[in-house]
């Protein structure tokens, strides 16, 4: 499944997703091995599609599923009867990002704790950092922020389930309901980034050494932060436009 743009003379470009059989594309081995600042273990690679015919039944314009509340259901709901398979991308996509970011933030807190349990302060009193209020305050602030990020994520997951139950009962959630859920999930990502950045800059210069776990967790969140920055302006505006009944297309 790849994203594309449908170009037609005399009309605006149409974003779409297409399904391709494995023989119609190639995958370049251009990720991993420190080719990027994070995601070294990711299966992500560049996908190349050249001179391929795609039948209409394998093409799904974004407007048909990205901006829909699915009054007729989807292939997934019709085959399983489970409203989870509505697959509203405006909430599912940021949920997939938020789950990873919250997990990375918890891992960063664990790594920070391991450090302050053994390393002493550089200035008096020369005690282990966890015994001093400075280290305690940073740990406590990060913990509260990560707890908040996780609460947002878990609440959103329950809300997604409830929206599906409403749909199954015939009380169709609006598009605003779905996109607002995605909007709040990006807030979970931002909280995770805030906590991880606090821990990274507070642990000491030794974290600059390549291969340290806290550095890895920080880089994971920073790479995602750049990606999320592209989506947040669009989804915040889209949420407002859905609420006020305006055109959802963002130029």
Question: What percentage of residues falls in helices of 4 or more residues?
Answer: 40-55%
What is the terminal-to-terminal distance?
A: 25 Å
Q: Beta fraction of the residues?
A: 5-15%
Q: What's the β-strand tally?
A: 5
Strand order of the largest sheet: 1-2-5
User: Superfamily at the CATH H level of the largest domain?
Assistant: Butyryl-CoA Dehydrogenase, subunit A, domain 3
Structure, described:
The protein has six helices and five strands. The protein has 251 residues and is mostly helical. The chain has two domains: 2-67, Beta Barrel (Butyryl-CoA Dehydrogenase, subunit A, domain 2); 84-244, Butyryl-CoA Dehydrogenase, subunit A, domain 3 (Up-down Bundle), CATH 1.20.140.10. It has a three-stranded antiparallel sheet with strand order 1-2-5. A hairpin with a 7-residue loop joins strand 1 and strand 2. Helix 3 packs parallel to helix 5 (175-202), helix 3 (89-118) packs antiparallel against helix 6 and helix 4 packs antiparallel against helix 5.
């Amino acid at each position: 499944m790849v994203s594309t743009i449908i170009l037609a003379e005399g009309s605006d470009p149409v974003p779409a997703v297409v399904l391709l059989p494995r023989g119609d594309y190639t995958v370049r081995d251009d990720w991993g091995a420190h080719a990027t600042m994070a995601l070294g273990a990711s299966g992500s690679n560049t996908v190349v599609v050249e001179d391929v015919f795609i039948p209409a039944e394998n093409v799904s314009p974004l407007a048909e599923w990205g901006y829909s509340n699915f009054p007729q259901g989807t292939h997934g709901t019709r085959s399983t009867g489970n409203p989870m398979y509505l697959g509203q991308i405006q909430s599912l996509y940021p949920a997939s990002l938020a789950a990873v970011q919250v997990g990375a933030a918890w891992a960063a807190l664990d790594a920070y704790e391991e450090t302050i349990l053994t390393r002493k302060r550089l200035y008096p009193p020369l005690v282990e950092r966890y015994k001093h209020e400075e280290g305690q305050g940073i740990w406590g602030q990060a913990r509260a922020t990560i707890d908040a990020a996780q609460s947002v994520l878990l609440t959103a997951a329950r809300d997604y389930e409830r929206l599906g139950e409403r749909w199954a009962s015939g009380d169709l959630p609006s598009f605003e309901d779905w996109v607002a859920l995605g909007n709040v999930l990006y807030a979970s990502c931002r909280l995770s980034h805030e906590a991880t950045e606090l821990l990274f800059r507070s642990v000491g210069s030794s974290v600059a050494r390549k291969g340290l776990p806290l550095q890895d967790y920080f880089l994971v969140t920073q790479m995602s932060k750049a990606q999320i920055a592209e989506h947040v302006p669009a989804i915040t505006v889209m949420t407002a436009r859905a609420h006020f009944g305006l055109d959802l297309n963002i130029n």
